[in-house]
Amino acid sequence: MGSAWKTMWLLALVLFGSWSVVMAADASPVGLVAKTEQATFVIAQNDLPGLQARLDGLKQQVSLADSLTQLVSLQDLIQTYLNDVERQLSALRPLQAQLQAQLGVLGPASADEQAPENTDIAIQRIHLIEQKDKLDSSLKTLAGLKASATELTTQIAALRRSLLESEVTQRSNSILSPNFWRPLIAPQPQDRQRLSAVLQEIGATLASVWQPGQRLASSMLLLLALAVWTQGRRLAERGLFWVCIHRMPEGRLRRSSLALASILATLLTATCALELLFYAVTRQLPLTPMLQNLAEEIEKLVYTCVLITGLSRALLSNRHPSWRLPAIADPVAMAMEPFPRILAGVLLVLVTLSQITNVSGMSSQAVIVGRGVIALIVTVILAILLLHISKVRKAVADSGEAPEAGTTLAGLMYAFTSLAVVASMLALLTGYISLARFITYELVWLFIVFSGFYLLMQLFKDLCEYLFSPRQASGKALKQLLGIGDARLEQVSTVLSGAGRASMLLFALIALLVGGVGTTFGQLFAQALEILGGAGLRKLNIIPGHLLNAVLALLIGVYLIRSLRRWLDNEFLPKTAMDPGMCASLSTLFANIGYALVILLALSSLGVQWTNLAWIVSALSVGIGFGLQEIVKNFVSGLILLTERPVKVGDLISISGVEGDIRRINVRATEIQLSDRSIVIVPNSQLISQNLRNVTLGGSAQGVATLELTFALDIDPEQVNDLLYNTYCEHENILDHPAPFVRFSKLTPDGITLTVTGYVSSPRVVGKIKSDLLFEILKRLGAAGISLAKPAAE
Questions:
Q1: How many CB atoms are located within 10 Å of the residue 223 CB?
Q2: Per-residue confidence (pLDDT) for residue 660, from 0 to 100
Q3: What pLDDT, on a 0 to 100 scale, did the predictor assign at position 536?
Q4: Are 464 and 456 in contact, with CB atoms under 8 Å apart?
Q5: Which among 385, 524, 557, 664 could bridge 671 via Cys, Cβ 3.0 to 4.6 Å?
């Protein structure tokens, strides 16, 4: 009895639990999901005033900005603002689509008064319409905010260009004038006060770090940051070098990987050291807005200096000359080694002092002096570097060794740098200080961009050569997967490597045009997307995220077409009753249609809207009318040849004096193989529009072996007739049906002409059989004492 009660209770609990789950599942779409959507929508609505206030504040700051540094910082803030707005838009668009779908399910309100609809449905429709109206309004507001922020970005770019032009063209005292150095020797009282205020804020921050009870922790953090930058960098380099040496294949890929490992180790350790240093300084007292701005600029400067030293160390590789990527002689590389560290140290110190003068709001004369000092010292360092390298290169050349393999590129680099150094020095002497500073900064930025992208392009090239090498496991797997040969695999490697390096070169050009010293990778990437993803791509509805889908669709489609064509050629078509020519035509037609469909599928995956391609169709129509009509005509003729099949692969044809076998019918032209095994390319349109003799079209065509011989007048015609007839009948390749025959052709004063004709199984063997018959006839005529007629003497 107790067991029965327990079983009943257990059954009741199971039924109750199942009912609860079902009810919860039924209620979740209406309850929990609706509440979640409503909460998300309420949050989005509450963010709108804050976003509007942020945009108004950014506009006010842009209107008050009077330096390039401030505009660059504001540009970063606006980009962050745009990301926040886009995040809100992405969160609300699905809700809008869902509300529209729910309204579609409910349908429009019933207009029939005799059949009123359910009250709950009407209330729910009204509620959904209200929610959708509010959501549409919020989306419209967010779109307006995004448009305003985008326009503000354009205005900042215009302001930056205007400020740069005004600064570059501004003329002040020359560096030879005592008035130029006066703000440095005898600064103005206002400049002293502003500089003192900044130094007091810095002192207060450092005092909070070094106060009693915090000195040990601060010292430990500083020592840890120093250890990370010095010993940590060496350990990171050794670890990455070990991975490259033991895990990367021997050759160029290992060498370029080692160079990249050196830069990565430098950047990673520098980042860790900076984070530790920043934490040590700000863990007790947060930075003021002025010091926060200064810290951000110094951070960019530090990364610039780290890139200078890291790239130079990776490309020169003086400790391991065999790892060196550019073709630079060892003496030249050794001569260049100390200069990047000197340049980085000078920039770190001088530009930091210049940033302090900028954030403190000192007078323009003091700012100009700071720019002049930076430009002068950097120009002198670069001039000494060029003179020293020229001296070493001359010594190397005198010794008989070429300093660089690529002398043209090296010569252009030296010439350009020398001209820039001369221009900078002339600007300093004539009073164009900002222009000189701009030239020196651009030289430093050019070195960073050129070196960095040179390393990336070399790495990408070596990686493509390794992955697509027929001797490597990856290349063998690709050959087996795609069914291609070594030559085609090398072509893929070359094309992919060229396309990748061309893309990197384009990005490098954009970096040179829109970037500068202190520009971050995020800013470069945003500028590149803005340039490359402009109005042209937006009109075609090409989204960068769809590029991967299009590439995958293209690769998979081509692979499937090739696989199916191999299956047709090797498995299916040989088992049918169709002749080889028909099989080849069907295979070619299938491949052409398949490739066309794959291209359409790739364009569809890319997001291309065909309504936006009207200009492409117009351009094609103009091109067809002027220069592409022959190509189109041959293409259409090729399709006709593959469908109607007046000729097919394997037919023996004769056209315009060309006679041979058809080997292949391509999209544009047909390949005809002559008797000497040479190939004649005939456009498809000629096979359609001209008179063509197809010897084997009927499938049972026979060849005709005809010989015409002239004998003297005194021969016995019956004897010669029997001799010729018996020779033909006794030859094994002459058919019995139709039987061979001898015909009296003509009688002339020179002799009697007899024609003997016999049929063979194929036109392709006529030449050989006629040769054999002629040899046999001459042999029998000689044995019978019968000679051919001699031509009459003129």
A1: 11
A2: 84
A3: 43
A4: no
A5: 664
Q: CB count, 10 Å around CB of 713?
A: 11
Q: How far is CA 690 from CA 501, 654, 682, in A?
A: 48, 11, 12
CB 478, CB 489: distance < 8 Å? yes
Question: d(Cα 454, Cα 508) in Å, to the nearest integer?
Answer: 10
Q: Where are the alpha helices (DSSP H) in 65-109?
A: 68-106
Neighbours of 320 (CB within 10 A): 11
Assess contact for 498 and 447: CB atoms under 8 A.
Answer: no
Q: What is the C-alpha to C-alpha distance for residues 608 and 622, in angstroms, rounded to an integer?
A: 22
pTM (2 decimals)?
A: 0.61
Strand 693-694, strand 652-655: pairing? antiparallel
Number of CB atoms found within 10 A of residue 742's CB: 21
Give the tens place of pLDDT for each residue, 383-414: 999 998 888 888 877 776 554 544 556 677 78
Q: For 687-776, list the strands marked E by DSSP.
A: 693-694, 703-711, 741-748, 751-760
How confident is the model at residue 8, as a pLDDT?
A: 40
Number of other CB atoms surrounding residue 780 within 10 Å: 14
Tokens of residue 286, six digits: 């947060």
CA distance 711 to 747: 10
Tokens, residue 311: 């790239």
User: H or E stretch including 609?
Assistant: none
Cα–Cα distance, 377 to 385 (Å, whole number): 12
- How many CB atoms are located within 10 Å of the residue 424 CB? 26
> Which has the closest alpha carbon to 57: 152, 158, 163?
152
The amino acid that residue 242 corresponds to is W
Contacts (Cβ under 8 Å, ≥6 apart) of 363: 183, 188, 190, 191
Would you state the pLDDT for residue 116? 60
Residue 432 has phi, psi (to 5 degrees) of: -90, 75
pLDDT at 15: 39
**Residue pair 313/255 in contact by the 8 Å Cβ criterion:** no
Domains of the chain (ranges plus CATH)?
Answer: 31-169 (1.20.58), 208-467 (no CATH), 703-784 (3.30.70.100)
At residue 20, the pLDDT reads 39
Going 443 to 445 to 451 to 457, the CA torsion angle's sign is: negative
Say which DSSP state 625 is in.
Answer: I
Instruction: List the structure tokens of 533.
Output: 């993803």
Task: Please name the residue that has the structure tokens 């803030």.
Answer: 77
Residue 649 burial (C-beta neighbours within 10 Å; 0-12, 13-18, 19+): buried
Alpha-carbon span 212 to 37, nearest angstrom:
53
Q: Tokens representing 694?
A: 């197809």
The Cα 532–Cα 490 span in angstroms is 30
